[in-house]
Each structure stands twice: as structure tokens, then as C-alpha cells.
Amino acid sequence: MAKPLTREILGHSEEIVALKNLIAKIAPSPATVLVRGESGTGKELVARAIHEWSLVATGPFVAVNCGAIPENLIESELFGHKKGSFTGAIQDKPGLFEVAENGTLFLDEVGELPLSLQVKLLRALQDKTIRRVGANESIKINCRLVTATNKNLEKAIKRGEFREDLYYRLNVIQIDAPPLRVRGDDVLHLAQVFLETFSKKMGKTDLGFSDSVRAVLRAYSWPGNVRQLENVIERGVALASGFLIDTDVLPPELTAPVTLPLDVWDYEVDTRDSQWSAKTEVQNFKAFLKSKALEVSEGSERQARDRLKLTAEEWKKW
User: Fold this and answer.
1) Which of 96, 210, 240, 299 has the lowest CB atom count within 10 Å?
2) Domain(s) of CATH 1.10.8.60: residues in the chain
3) Into which CATH architecture does domain 183-255 fall?
4) Cβ pair 303, 271 in contact under 8 A
5) Residues with Cβ < 8 Å from 255, sequence gap 6 or more?
6) Residue 26: in which H helix or E strand, if any?
7) Is beta strand 173-176 parallel, antiparallel or unpaired with respect to 129-130?
8) Across the chain, what does the average pLDDT equal?
């Protein structure tokens, strides 16, 4: 049985259950893992779970956002430097590969690495050695590497922004962090967890959600995913004046009318066909509406149903 996580991946949807099962399966392997997913889907949480279920769980977990470090400093950050190797290098400094020895190094937003660093990262993975900036000797490394990105690396390769050989080195095992919009009632479960957390921090006990807020939270598409939901609940707790968080304290983008953009000219009717009938045309138009709703809902059936104001049973009959 897998040991409990220090910060559990919350949720009970099929997508999250499948994610946890995959993590438990691949974590004991030393293979390099690439976590892919939209911003705010919890890619670092996935990486931490991989570490905590791995054979190096007693070692350090070291995380760095590659996009947050200036290009002229990132080589020193990853590989370390020797004293005097550049202005400001007043002493020897180990890089994060060394800091993560016998543990896990997590490189978030790996797609932001400059090409010059991509070459050196590839060499480090191939040779299992690194060289500090300004040093002549190589240092052996032994850490599990997990990377993450919200970029389409395949397109980046075609644009010449990402090395194809490095991509295959990093993508030995791929894990996809599911967006919140496909996770069903996980939205309400997470919202309740965040509500309890922020209520305790702000000293507002016995706070709850109105039925209207629950409906809004469930129907919204959450482009910012879990991070956006967390911020919305924190705002709601801060602004709530009674015992219920109601729609008046939600950000305006959550309560704006949900529309289904349709151009009537997209749908054509030809009554000259000898097989044409009004009944058949109604069915064709329903299928057209379902297709459009799925298109603007990025394939989410639940959101498409919400846009058309259909129950699950009505959706099946259409």
C-alpha cells in the first residue's frame, strides 16, 4: 500500500483516480518523467507525489521554475559555479543537481530553458555528470529528474525552440495533469477544502456556500484551473459578510452570462431533398447544436450540457 502524501492530490473524479494510479505505478522507477498540463493544474503536486512514492523519498525534493530565473544565471543555478568564475561569484556554490543528490530534482516550465542550456542538460542526462561554471572537473550526479511544462513542446521543436533529442530524453514517461473543467464534482470538493482553510485563517467560522454559488462553481470552465479556484474562494471568504458566500462576492467573470456563439449561416437547410422532413431536420439541428456546444466547451460534455441547459438524460436523447 502506498504511503500517504504530505499534501494529497485531492479529488475523486475518474481523471484523478487514474492519475493517482499512474503515479503509484511509475514512481518506483528511476525513469525521467515529463508532467504536462495547463497552468494551475497542479504539476508540482504531481511531481511531489512521484517523489514521495519513489525509492528516493527519503532524499530531498528540489523544485525550480526554469522560466523565473534570468538566462545569465540559470546555468549557475542548475550546475553550480566556482569562486571567481564571474562577477559576484565570491565562493564555490553547488548547483541544484548536487543539492538534489539521492532525491528528486523538479524542473518546472522546462520548455522555457534557452537552447544553450538545453544542450548542457542533455549532456548531464546522458553522462550522469555536471560541470560547475568555471570548473574543469566533472561531478557525478545521482538524482531522479521530473520536468513539467504547459507548452506544446512538439510545436516548439518545429519552431527550433526546443531540442528534439532532449525532448525524448525527458519524455520517457509522460503524465498529463487533467484540467479542472473535466473533473466534475471535484470542483465542489476542492472549493469546500479551500473554504475551510481560508475560513480558519481569517477567523470566519461556520461559512458555507449558497446554492447559487455552488451552481456557478460547477458550471464555470476554470481556465486558470485549481489555482484560480483557490483564489476565488479566498476572495469569497474575505468579502463574505454573513454565514453564506453568495454570488455577489464572486468575480464578475464567473457570473457573466454563458453564451453559445452561433452563426445561423453555419447551418443550412435544403428542403428540395426528396427525403427531407421537418422531424429529421429537427434532429439534425440538435446534433448541430451539440457539436457547436462541444466545440466551444473544448470537448467537455458537462460544460456543453450546461450551455444548452440539458440534463444528462436529455443530452443522450438528442
Assistant:
1) 299
2) 183-255
3) Orthogonal Bundle (1.10)
4) no
5) 216, 247
6) helix 14-26
7) unpaired
8) 88
> What's the one-letter identity of residue 251?
P
Q: Is 12 helix (H, G, I), strand (E, B) or coil?
A: coil
C-alpha cell at 136: 574543469
DSSP 152-216: -HHHHHHTTSS-HHHHHHH-SEEEEPPPGGGSTTHHHHHHHHHHHHHHHHHT-TT-EE-HHHHHH
Look at residue 22 and tell me whether its pLDDT is greater than 60. Answer: yes
Kindly state which CATH superfamily the domain 14-178 is placed in.
P-loop containing nucleotide triphosphate hydrolases (3.40.50.300)
What's this model's pTM, rounded to 2 decimal places? 0.78
b/e per residue, 15-38, with b = 16+ CB within 10 A?
Answer: bbeebbebbeebbeeeeebbbbbb
What is the pLDDT at residue 1?
Answer: 37
In this predicted model, what pLDDT tens digit does every residue of 244-257 receive, in sequence order? 999 999 999 888 76
Give the model's confidence band at 10: pLDDT under 50 very low, under 70 low, under 90 confident, else very high: very high
Nine-digit cell at 297? Answer: 466547451
Residue 271 has pLDDT above 70, yes or no: no
Contact 2, 8 (CB under 8 A): no
